[in-house]
Amino acid sequence: MKIKSQWLNGLAGLTAASLLRRWMSTIDCKVAYYDPIVDPAGADYSGHKLFVFWHEYIAFPITLRGNCNTSILLSQHRDADILARASHHLGFRHVRGSTFQGATQALRQLIRLSKESNLAWGCDGPRGPRRVMGQGPIYLSSKLRMPLVLMGYGYDRPWRINSWDRFAIPRPGSRGRSVWSPAITIPPNLDRDGLEHYRLQAEQLLNRLTSEAEAWAEAGTPKIDQRTMRSQHALSLPLRLHRPHGIAAPHAAAFARPPQTAPLTTADA
């Protein structure tokens, strides 16, 4: 019975990946960057970065930024089994774990994978609260000295699931928009107060980017230097990793400097 369940999960994952790819292909997806070199699909991309977004929009990055040498953190809950297999077929490695289960093992895997790939994190998952960032991404960025990139996403009047994150489903043929931060340096060796300071600043910026992307998607007006987002490759079976394309910043982000704590700064590419 267990083997049958695994087989069904595998088939469901492949089916979900195919449906996601087809569904998102109907969406007019555009992106605006603070700095285009942070896009792992860009010709000028270098190094490894930690990409962070809200869980409700996870379908956007996993469909359009697979096959970019990225490992994504997913929960160990059974509900994430199909998502894990779908992300595999869409071109991601995945790590299973969360604050509630498997956190230590997941952290070790992320640290190991950071030496050879980017990392990605739906930073309010797996149980919320919605749009509240945990300290995990800040801790990992600080420990690994890996620049943080915040990714705000939005759809035009999406359908919403009645879940903790109000998971967003774009309407076929509608607009999808994304606004990405520049690479942000988190200082090393932060204490508890330092982690909380940068967590709060990153959370505020990610909420601002998300609000901007949502307003942009709803308005349908163009941005200067906006670019079209496209998926990188066909479904991967088995998984194939590629390192391949990357609007000038809509506006720069400012961060207040607390006592004895350095501000968030843009990392050198």
Describe this structure in words.
With 269 residues, the protein is α/β, with parallel strands linked by helices. The chain is built from six helices and twelve strands. The strands form three sheets. An eight-stranded mixed beta sheet has the order 4-3-5-2-6-9-1-11, sandwiched between helices. It has a two-stranded antiparallel ribbon with strand order 7-8. A hairpin with a 7-residue loop joins strand 7 (159-160) and strand 8. Helix 1 (2-24) packs across helix 3 (81-89). The N and C termini lie far apart (50 Å).
Which term fits the overall shape? globular
Order of helices and strands: HEEHEHEHEHEEEEEHEE
Describe the largest sheet.
8 strands, mixed
Helix content: 25-40%
Strand order in the sheet with the most strands: 4-3-5-2-6-9-1-11
Give the end-to-end Cα distance, rounded to a whole number of Å: 50 Å
Query: What structural class is derived from the secondary structure elements?
Result: alpha/beta
Strand content range:
15-25%
Put simply, the count of helices is 6
Mean pLDDT figure: 84
Give the secondary structure arrangement, pairings included.
Layout: H1 2-24, E1 28-33, E2 50-53, H2 59-64, E3 70-74, H3 81-89, E4 93-96, H4 103-113, E5 118-122, H5 136-144, E6 148-155, E7 159-160, E8 168-169, E9 175-180, E10 184-185, H6 192-219, E11 227-228, E12 265-266
Helix pairs in contact: 1-3
List keywords for this structure.
single chain, 269 residues, alpha/beta, eight-stranded mixed sheet, two-stranded antiparallel ribbon, 6 helices, 12 strands
